[in-house]
Specification:
Number of strands: 5
Bound molecules: tryptophanyl-5'AMP
Helix content: 55-70%
CATH topology of the largest domain: Rossmann fold
Order of helices and strands: EHEHHEHHHHEHEHHHHH
CATH architecture of the largest domain: 3-Layer(aba) Sandwich
Distance between the termini: 36 Å
Number of domains: 2
CATH class of the largest domain: Alpha Beta
Structural class: mainly alpha
Shape: globular
Largest sheet: 3 strands, parallel
Length: 316
């Protein structure tokens, strides 16, 4: 029986945080045993926010180590880098020609930028189309992501339908896969954990950094249960246990935060150690990524041949 296929990516736009992990990255590890998987570093997507080449280069190497450390197994998953596969940008152009501006203007990211009166570059506007190409080239059944990416997967579906109805059945329609309890992991200020809000807890934080982040969690003094602490704590200890503990220690915010620090350290320390091991041999890690890109390239170029055939540019 053919295995189902999953695909997802993470931008190398800085250190991954526990929101990225519980919302998306953990799912990749959980899915890799029963699915064929594609996991990639979305470096071209990161260009819209990261224009320092040295930092980009470092971030790509860092996220590579991060993925290996969380347990992505390159024997089970095709693990690659977006910019190695030129078919992603090629297909984006073809999709651009069948996608209307009003349709893309409905995307949340565009609307947010517009509401903030930001000067919006074409890349940011077109971001969902590149994402549609990322996804559709590999015919995944499911795309594991956090809730903030749900609309992007729906846009990919819509673009696939538009292409299929214009040129004939070519692309499989993907579905997002969102963890019910982890759809939006909250940050230290109670808003969605996000690099742009500065409210993150890095996934590979050292003990002192964990402590600093946890102590900075905003608590309101009205009730006995600090909701923002609880919201993060539930990622590391079953809620049933926490309910009891938080009731017993009602109002004792410092004690509860100290307990969260220890629970997080227990979880993060082994990941940090694994990462240090992989970091000892960067050339080996890079070779894994390169081999993955070579594998992905074969799949993507086969799909592009089919697309070129369908749109009528294939004459030789
Ligand atoms: P990125 O790099 O912003 O985030 C990576 C993944 O982490 C999830 N995530 C969260 N989940 C729960 N709670 C949070 N607070 C939280 N913050 C982030 C995101 O939903 C995402 O799944 N556009 C994508 C990268 C991408 C992609 C793709 C993903 C490019 N092409 C194709 C899937 C398929 C992004 O910016 O993710």
């Amino acid at each position: 029986m053919n295995k189902k296929v999953f695909l997802s990516g993470v931008q190398p736009s800085g250190k991954p945080h526990i929101g990225n992990y519980f919302g998306a990255m953990k799912q990749f590890v959980d899915l890799q045993n029963e699915h064929d998987g594609y996991v990639f570093i979305a470096d071209y997507h990161a260009l819209h926010s990261l224009r320092n080449p040295k930092e980009m280069n470092e971030n790509i190497k860092n996220i590579l180590l991060d993925y290996l450390a969380i347990g992505i197994d390159p024997k089970k998953v095709t693990f690659f880098k977006q910019s190695d596969i030129s078919e992603h940008t090629e297909l984006t152009w073809i999709f651009d020609t069948i996608t209307t501006m009003p349709f893309l203007m409905r995307a949340h990211a565009y609307k947010d930028a517009e509401a903030k009166n930001k000067e919006i570059d074409v890349g940011t506007f077109n971001y969902p189309v590149l994402m549609a190409a990322d996804i559709l080239l590999y015919s995944p059944d499911v795309v594991p992501v956090g809730a903030d990416q749900k609309q992007h997967v729906e846009i990919a579906r819509d673009i696939a339908e538009k292409f299929n109805s214009t040129y004939g059945e070519t692309f499989k329609l993907p579905n997002s896969k969102i963890m019910k309890d982890m759809a939006i992991v909250l940050g230290t200020d109670g808003r969605k954990m996000s690099k742009s809000y500065g409210n993150t807890i890095p996934l590979f934080a050292e003990y002192e950094e964990i402590k600093k982040c946890v102590m900075s969690i905003v608590t309101d003094s009205s009730g006995g249960i600090p909701q923002n602490v609880f919201a993060i704590h539930r990622l590391f200890r079953p809620e049933a246990e926490l309910n009891k503990i938080y009731k017993e220690k009602s109002g004792k915010y410092k004690d509860l935060k100290e307990m969260l620090v220890e629970d997080m350290e227990k979880f993060i320390a082994p990941l940090r150690e694994r990462r240090k091991e992989f970091a000892k041999d960067i050339p080996k890690a890079l070779a894994i990524l390169k081999a993955g890109s070579e594998k992905a390239k074969k799949v993507a170029s086969k799909k592009m041949e089919e697309v070129r055939e369908k749109i009528g540019v294939q004459v030789y």
